ABC transporter ATP-binding protein
Amino acid sequence: MLANDSDRSGQLTAGAAALELRNVSVMYPDGHAPLHEVNLCLEPGEIVALLGASGSGKSTLLRAIAGLEPLAAGEIWMRGTRIDQQPVHQRSCGMVFQDGQLFPFRSVGRNIAYGLESQRLTAAERDARVTELLELVGLSGYADRSVQTLSGGQAQRIALARSLAPRPQVLLLDEPLSALDRDLREQLAGQLREVLQATNTTALFVTHDAEEASRVADRTLRIRNRQLAPVAE
Ligand SMILES: Nc1ncnc2c1ncn2[C@@H]1O[C@H](COP(=O)(O)OP(=O)(O)OP(=O)(O)O)[C@@H](O)[C@H]1O
């Protein structure tokens, strides 16, 4: 289903792709162009992994979708709305990074609540959402903990909870497990898939590890020659 089946008022249309890139190119100011006419379509709730050699443009692609890198050409659509001209804060994209990037001086609960502060929620509604998210990532009761007391795996689960709290239309994950040791990575890969499925989250997941990609995602793509190609099972 193409994403341009929105009606004239810009209303969302049932069946539109959760995320669609059409001929997207990115060029850095120095002339380096890691992405050239990239096409991608994610159905609602689909989890897609993205592999590629170091420097192939994986992070650049996520950053372009989030609005952190301008497009040299092409269009990005979410659920029938063109978003590539929208500023970062208006795009319904959550991001999770390799090192979590939690706010060190906020408690766990206030980290998770961060993306809810701009929403019109009562304090009770916000607390209830934080409790729900903590339960989802298996860390119930951690709301008042300092994030500086968390293990690496716990911190990544809180980063995931924080990114999911505002119910983003698309979640972008940039090697969220790669700073963890192998056993923990395998365990969290399974949990990550469970959490994304339980919340019916559409996700694009960057990893270096083909095995991890198949554990987390419904399908896997690879950046090669500045474009996306499917990876055979
Ligand atoms: N701000 C920038 N200005 C110029 N070139 C950049 C900039 N950011 C990234 N690049 C270049 O663009 C290419 C893609 O970088 P990117 O970080 O997207 O790769 P990656 O696939 O995520 O790599 P890795 O797996 O090592 O994290 C690289 O050659 C990189 O050097």
